[in-house]
Fold these 3 entries.
Entry 1:
Amino acid sequence: MILDKNFFQKDVVTLAKSLLGKVLCRKIDNFILKARIIETEAYSKSEPASHSSLGYSLNRAAMFMEAGTIYMYHSRAGASFNISALGYGDAVLVKSGICFLDNDYNTLAFIQQINKKNGKLRDIHYLASGQTLLCKSLMIERMLWDKKSFNGELYIENIGYIPENILISSRLGIPKGRDNALLPYRYIDKEFLKYATKGRCKFY
């Protein structure tokens, strides 16, 4: 079942947890590239780690749009994929996924070809292990999708899977001085912990 706009009408923490286990899908050419979401981070306008805390701008506009709007930004490593939540200026970062291929080896080969590491094929379990790898493996480009809504080319499926255990920790990669509270806003499906973003953190 494809998620509709009503699904995203949640506060940012609830949405971050609810997205775990859902499958992000990108239809391109004759392929449907899929990744099960295994790790998310919540960002609220009320705290300085969020981009929206810096105020409205054209680059950050999607965070201030209706819930379910795609917000993408670019870092040195590549693009990152976020979804706006119910709160004005709040959004969820899709931090990691694991490719969901339904034994479709042609699609797997395609994803491995577009996301090589030093010219070599990546392990299938780590193709989307990290926010920029996720975007690269599913071919989700900032120029095409920032400020857009989900549609027939990019959508999220509910496959009926609900994580039995959700690990909670502080977020990773926040600049010093912008996350002093070490807020417990990072969520990981424990079943897939070893494929999530690596980093030193405390689990609550």
Entry 2:
Amino acid sequence: MPVNYNVEKIGAGIQVKMALMTGWFGGLSHVEMVEQVAAYGFPAFENLGAGKWEDKEAVRAKCDELGISVGAIACGGTINGEGPVNPAYHDTFENEVRAAIVNAKALGTKTLLALTGAERSDMSMAQQMDNVVVASKRLAPMLEDAGMVMVYETLNIRKDHKGYALVYSKQAADMVRQVGSPAVKFLFDVYHQQISEGDVIRNLTDFKDEIGHFHFGDNPGRREPGTGELNYKNIFKAIAASGYTGCVSAEFSKSKDLEVEALLRILADCARW
């Protein structure tokens, strides 16, 4: 399927830097995907695995040409296994982040997504968060020198990721404050935080200084806005009002019979006021 350059610029005028999922543009190369995102008038894309793409430099060149931003890429840690909650993992974690910085520079992103690992039964949660702080302080100078921001993702344990260590916004914000570096923040995934704690707009506003990236999807179902209970126009307004200017990245499965252009119209409508 070739790039269609003659499409409507559906994303023109949106008021957050919305990053589209690359999987919505099947049949295109990575560079062609960037061209299609730009043709639709959207400002960014995200694929957490893009750091491993072999054509990173070509993608970056096309993004620079068309003014397209790149969202986060994965950098280290796991959901159900090891992560920086365990001091024995810290050397591995550093090596993972170091490699991700190289990939991020090649691709043209400044945002690295980290995972804390699963909650451990052999130490208190306070000690585990202290361990994450220690690991983060160790990496902060390297991240700062590279101009990167590493964001720890909070995930819900009620529905999707039972056993994960970092769940609540305040928990993440407290950890970020203890690190004390502009290069270490947390990722606020609206879908996950709605399940874990609700109060989405209050929390993203209260913790605006500690948030370094956003993901979104509706709840329940983790599909496009309008399929669940979240008022995304108001949420995006709150994100914009908080002063955040980075990517707000789609991370959901679109409804099966929904055409891509119809999906893009839904997203654009939520981000325009």
Entry 3:
Amino acid sequence: MTRLQGRVAIVTGAGQGLGKAISAALADEGASVALLGRTKQKVDDVAAELAGKGRDVMAIGCDVADRAAVDKAVAETSARFGRIDILINNAQGGALGTTSTATVDLSDEEALEYFRTGPLGSLHLMQAAFPSLRESPHAVVINFGSAVGVRGAPRMAGYSMAKEALGGLTKSTAIEWGKYGIRVNLVCPAAWSPAAETFRDENPARFEQIVRGIPLRRYGDPYDDIGRAIVGLVSDDLRFLTGATLMLDGGQIILR
């Protein structure tokens, strides 16, 4: 599989879950991939696993909320691979899958953590990678939103606000960067992840209710359902798609 042969990708939040699966899917299609993650050991482990399969990858410890760390990671990627064609902004911090907060109790710090690690982190990567992306004939940015941002959810105002902000960033940048041939799209997945597993274990009844509300009656597989879809989005097969929001959620949004 060589649809992405010769292209270079950066994937944030690549140490586990969706980020790991997307990195694997891109590498399996021939892309060279820089794996970015806040916990260096996690991305080191993923890089070792993929390199063991003959994939061309590198691991970089990077907190996307730290602009200096982002600039350094992008520079290291360019120095190693010579270019950047694909940027996958998957990282999102905050209290994911562990707690929920009523809107009246939401603190500034809790809300800002979602923004620092979500839309601001994505903005940092986009700004830092822009000079390289502008030179690529295949430049694509994929940001990650959420159905929670689209439809809202109780006790999740901080997360919902941050994910809606990513939608605004995606649309504005798609318009602004289109003249450079850079495509920017938003993906809203409903996929199995460590956060989903934690939620299932702590809220089994609510988890089953959510699954029943998905027309396909399951969460997406991180590699086969999300990673492979990302491969399609960043390939030339969808080269005329930009500024779009793709709901990779098994149809969940239409029943809400």
